[in-house]
Amino acid sequence: MELRAETRLAVLGRGSGAPGQPLNVPIVPASNFRAAPAGTAGREYSRDDGTPGWEAFEELIGDLEGGSAVAFSSGMAAIAAVLELLPVGARVVVPRDSYTGLRALLADGAAAGGRWAVRTVDATDPGALAAAAGDADLVWLETPSNPLLQVVDVAAVAAASGALVAVDNTFATPLLQNPLRLGADFAVHSATKAIGGHSDLLLGAVVCRRPEDRARLARRREVAGATPGALEAFLALRGARTLAVRLRQAQESAGELARRLAAHPAVERVRYPGLPGDPHAALAARQMRGPGPVLAFEVADATTADAVCAHVRVVASATSLGGVESTVERRAKLPGQEHVPAGLVRLSVGIEHVEDLWADLAAALEAAG
Known about the structure:
By secondary structure, the chain is α/β, with parallel strands linked by helices. It has 14 helices and twelve strands. Helices cover 39% and strands 15% of the residues.
C-alpha cells in the first residue's frame, strides 16, 4: 500500500521500530562513539558517520521528494555544498529573482579567481533562460521565487538543458512540488522555514535524484564540516510531523488574504500564483499541488511599505518565513534586491485565524496611508 504524504510525515523517520525502542528517535548529543571491532561496520565519529537524528530526518525528506537526502547545518550550507560539486570555472545560471544569500555566495566565488562564471537571467523568459542554459554546467531555479513569487517550468528547463538542474523548493515544500519528479537533479530546502515550522532552528537539506550525487554531497558535508546539530535535527523532524496540517491552514489563509488585499484601495498589486489573474497561475496549477503560504503585495512606495511593517501587531515584522507565525518584510531594503519594487511587502502566512490576520493588515494599511 502506498501511503499518502500526510501519513508518511507521521510514520517515517521513526528508527528501527523494535519493541521497547522510543517512538521518536531520541537526541544523541555525542560526537564520539565506541569503536567497532576491526573489520566490522559501526558509527565512530558523528561528522563522518552521522547520527540517528540526521538519518531519521533524511529518511523522511528523501522519501517525500522521491530521492536520497543529505542534511546540512543550514539552508546556505546546503546551497554551498551543491555549488562545491562543480569544477572551478563552472558556468552557473541563476534567476534574477532568487534568494539573496545564493547570489551573494555566487558573487563572492566569481570575484575570487573565477570560482564560478555566473549568468543572471529572467527565469520567466523561456528564450533567455534557454539561451543562458545552453552551455551551462548548472542551472539554478527557484520556484516560486523569493520575493516576487515567480513560477518557472522545471520540466521544460530540465528537458531542454544538458546541465545539472537544482531547484530551491523551500517555498513549495515537498508537499506542493517535487522537482526531482519533474526532471531536476537536486531539490534544495531551507528546513529552517516551513519544514521546521517554528522559527527555532537552522537546518538545510539537499535531495538527489542519483545515489552517486548523494554520496558526493555527504562527502562535502564531511570534509567541510557543515553538519546539523543534534537538537536541530530533532526539532526539524518534530516540526515536519505537522507540516501537512500547518501548510493546509496557512495556504487557505494566504489565498483569502491575497483576494482581500487585491481589492484593497491602498494595494497596487498582489503577487500570488493562487490568484486567477496572476501571470504564473496556469503554470502553478500544472506544476504544483497548491500555490503555497507566501504572497507579496505592493503599496505606493518604500515609506508606506515600511509603515505597514511597523504597524502590524498580530503579524510579526521579521526577515524569515515559514513559521507558525505570520511575518512581513519589505524585501527591497536588502542589498542585492534592486529589481524588487520599493513598495513590495512579502507576507508569509502562519496558522493564526484569517480574520485576525486580515484585521491586523487592514489596520496597518490604514495607519500607513
